[in-house]
Amino acid sequence: MIRILRIEKDPVAAIQGSPGPFYHSDPSHHTYEQLQASGIEVKPLPEGDLEAGTLIVPQNAGPVYNLVHVVDRLLGPGGCPWDQEQTHSSLKKYLLEEAYEVLDAIDSENLEQLQEELGDLLLQPLMHTQMESRDGGWDIDAVAQGITNKLVRRHPHVFGDLSVADASEVLKNWDRIKQEEKGGEPKSILAGVPKGMASLLRAHEVSKRAAGAGFEWQDIEGVFNKLREEESELREAIAEGNSTHIESEIGDLLFTVVNIARWSGVEPEEALRRMLNRFTERFMLVEKAATKPLRELTAQEWDDLWNASKRQLSASPQTS
């Protein structure tokens, strides 16, 4: 919601308490100059029917723009020294940490925690955008407008006249539009797969794209044959004791397992994450049930405690 003001005196007082952004109908009007001189960012409106001296002010801008205002305050003069020292690079780890905490909240099916973690995650893109805005670059409005335009362009079956049969056709159409936007086919079918992705996610995407181009086994049995071949080569590398060779063969083996997951319709990153969650729960139960230090347990005692933890968790309906 917005309010439209006709102001002649003290425009700063007229917008007191509103977080912005502000739009003015005439950059040559004296009230525009007064606002600019007060350090308030005012954007000119496109040509229209509004009289000179008209100011567009957000009314009840809402919590999102209130958050933008808070971030600007932290980054601006008199704000937080720690926030002011951050760069795009220094914030990378926090973006990943907050994203993984969102995943944990989803897995725990705790909606209250999910709401909190999504807020923490939302802060990260706002920090990046408002850092740019502070330094004279783009802001959250530019980012939001960019993704809005992209969504409209890439969903012509929703915002246009195109008809699609199913979700698979939606994805194909999305890829086609994406390539057109980027100037046609890339130099490589693997171009555009981010090198910073988690390795399992990247391996799955590379495998999927290569298979789509025809680099594929005829059936899943061929992948299992490759798995046995890679296991044999890894055993040879271990026997040699060559660490570089061992690392290479372990990579080949892992990539083959990723292909088995793809053939089976399983997301390997998700599969490993869930397995680690199960392992952690089981190990914690073993720690709790052990009657002596873990290092003093015999192999049989480890087996007994581990199997007991598996039985205990399998009886729980919340186990993933």
Written account of the structure:
This protein is mostly helical and 320 residues long. It starts with a strand and ends in a 6-residue tail after the last helix. A 4-stranded mixed beta sheet has the order 1-4-2-3, covered by helices on one side. The chain is built from 14 helices and 4 strands. The mean pLDDT is 86. 62% of the residues lie in helices and 5% in strands. The chain folds into 5 domains: 2-58, no CATH class; 63-152, MazG-like (Helix Hairpins, Orthogonal Bundle); 157-185, no CATH class; 199-266, Helix Hairpins (Orthogonal Bundle); 274-314, no CATH class.
Secondary structure layout plus pairing:
Layout: E1 2-6, H1 11-14, E2 22-24, H2 30-37, E3 42-44, E4 54-58, H3 63-75, H4 81-85, H5 92-108, H6 111-134, H7 140-153, H8 156-159, H9 167-181, H10 199-212, H11 220-240, H12 243-263, H13 268-289, H14 299-314
Parallel strand pairs: 2-3
Antiparallel strand pairs: 1-4, 2-4
